[in-house]
Specification:
Shape of chain A: globular
Structural class of chain A: mainly beta
Low-confidence stretches of chain A: none
Oligomer: heterodimer
Radius of gyration of chain A: 13 Å
Order of helices and strands of chain B: EEEEEEEEEEE
Largest sheet of chain A: 6 strands, mixed
Shape of chain B: globular
Largest sheet of chain B: 7 strands, mixed
Distance between the termini of chain B: 39 Å
Number of strands of chain A: 9
Largest interface: A-B, 24 and 22 residues
Distance between the termini of chain A: 28 Å
């Protein structure tokens, strides 16, 4: 069981918008620790997608956006493309565990 | 170009030991906290360990505490993970990752090295 909870899978048709949630608790996201998101295309290494809740590294499409509220964070992907099919992970810090924590990952399928 | 290259993975028997290495290039290695993150086959990401710039602050995930030891050599731009008493559940790809200086996001990630624990 991951400390950060993500849906195992989401799907959407090309051009649609999908969101991936990352639910934590008062000792991680709710304590205002930063949330980061990574994209892992099958067979490749994870790639930073969103850092510090809402920021995109240079080179990341503005179709990707992050948000955070209370004990949850979300990743939104607009204008879905076939190349977005990948696993997505959220990442934060937990003060009760004194440890880095990841979500269990969400597999995005583009229909 | 910022790059992290891991090595040292392989097949080891339960109870055995292995040392992973990660060589950094393209940035001032001594200025960054470094981490190891692993991914079991078909599973998600799991943080393993972190080490501060001067090796003063070292942390481990509970599953590896007492068995794994992280170290670094800033003169050699290298990060290490000494793994002892290996178990089947340690089988994973191990990634070397750089942590941001003013926050804690991970970027970049190395290509990973596969550790397989099996008799």
């Amino acid at each position: 069981q991951s400390v950060l909870t993500q849906p195992p899978s989401v799907s959407g048709a090309p051009g649609q918008r999908v969101t991936i949630s990352c639910t934590g608790s008062s000792s991680n996201i709710g304590a205002d620790y930063d949330v980061h998101w990574y994209q892992q295309v099958p067979g490749t290494t994870p790639k930073l997608l969103i850092f510090n809740d809402i920021n995109r590294p240079s080179g990341v499409s503005d179709r990707f956006s992050g948000s955070k509220s209370g004990t949850s964070a979300s990743l939104a992907i607009t204008g879905l493309q076939a190349e977005d099919e990948a696993d997505y992970y959220c990442h934060s810090f937990d003060s009760r565990l004194s440890a880095v924590v990841f979500g269990g990952g969400t597999k995005l399928t583009v229909l | 170009e910022v790059q992290l290259v891991e090595s040292g993975g392989g097949l080891v028997k339960p109870g055995g030991s292995l040392r992973l290495s990660c060589v950094a290039s393209g940035f001032t290695f001594s200025s960054y906290r470094m981490n190891w993150v692993r991914q079991a086959p078909g599973k998600g990401l799991e943080w393993v360990s972190s080490i501060s710039t001067g090796s003063n602050y070292i942390y481990y995930a509970d599953p590896v505490k007492g068995r794994f030891t992280v170290s670094r050599d800033n003169a050699e731009n290298s990060l290490y993970l000494h793994m002892n008493s290996l178990r089947a559940e340690d089988t994973a790809v191990y990634y070397c990752v750089r942590e941001a200086t003013h926050s804690n996001w991970f970027d970049p990630w190395g290509q990973g090295t596969l550790v397989t624990v099996s008799s």
